[in-house]
Write a structure and sequence with these properties.
268 residues, alpha/beta, Rossmann fold, Alpha-Beta Plaits, 9-stranded mixed β-sheet, 4-stranded antiparallel β-sheet, 15 strands, 34% helix, 24% strand, globular
């Protein structure tokens, strides 16, 4: 069933939920517009202020889950008393929480070896960016000439296939992005469930994201929460959608209003 437009349905208003709202957000493409150079992706002050208010309202908490390294997402969104999950949930920090997936750490030297080999093979192709991370690396080719895209992708996969320990690695595809990361049973969905457990109280998870990496979270929370995709798609597992990233401020205003007005299980 395709997702419904979030603001047509008012999902929090209809369910009359009286417990804590746990707002869980992706970063790039959700809280902040996607940039060709990920280093230029920033959280606008107004959005940051809205998140601060939601995070420190009695009936709501905030978590940001990103493919960025944990330290990077903490710098990009320096909001106190929230959960930050980096590397697609392989690293998590928050109130009384510090987690790093043990299996991922063991694979990092293999990934570094592949990255070094790929950098040598790719030469001086203009417009590509290789983002080194704590547990993985990401190839961004959005800004490269389109005539080079196929060469870049083929070289990426060929370099992986030449490594004798390739089965210990996995490729995650994004929007003109390829990421090589540890092949471990973990994703944003499992990270979201861990954060819910760490909250140690009943909550309504509200997860919003724009990327294929968020689909695992949409599926994990389908029965117990509210899931929203930024951008309409018939292929998503999300229950609702926003039209585009520009609607995020209106969405955050809605969440704050919901958290402030739950009284005896009613939305007023």
């Amino acid at each position: 069933m395709p997702p419904e437009y979030f603001f047509d349905k008012d999902p929090l208003g209809f369910n009359g939920y009286k417990h804590t709202i746990l707002l869980m957000c992706d970063f790039d493409g959700t809280l902040a517009p996607i940039q060709g150079d990920p280093g230029k992706c920033i959280l606008l002050p107004d959005i940051g202020k809205q998140l601060e208010i939601i995070a420190h309202t009695d009936n709501s908490r905030v978590a940001i889950l990103s493919g960025r390294p944990l330290a990077d997402i903490q710098r990009k969104a320096p909001i106190k008393d929230i959960f930050h999950a980096g590397s697609h949930g392989l690293e998590i920090s928050g109130p009384q929480t510090r987690y790093i997936h043990p299996g991922a750490v063991a694979v990092k030297p293999i990934i570094d070896k592949v990255r070094n080999s790929f950098e040598e093979k790719i030469g001086n192709v203009k417009g590509i960016l290789i983002e080194k991370k704590k547990l993985s690396f990401t190839l961004h080719y959005r800004m490269a000439n389109k005539t080079n895209w196929e060469f870049v992708r083929k070289t990426f996969y060929k370099t992986i296939s030449e490594n004798t320990e390739r089965e210990r690695m996995a490729v995650l595809k994004g929007k003109k992005v390829l990421e090589l990361l540890p092949n471990v049973p973990w994703d944003k969905g499992r990270a979201a469930l861990l954060i819910i457990k760490q909250l140690k109280k009943k909550c309504l998870p509200v997860y919003i994201g724009d990327d294929v990496t968020d689909e695992c979270a949409f599926k994990a929370l389908f029965e117990c929460g509210i899931t929203i995709r930024v951008g309409q798609s018939k292929k998503t597992a999300a229950q609702y959608y926003l039209k585009n990233q520009k609607e995020i401020s209106r969405f955050l205003e809605y969440i704050n209003r919901a958290a402030c007005h739950y009284v005896l299980g009613e939305f007023v």
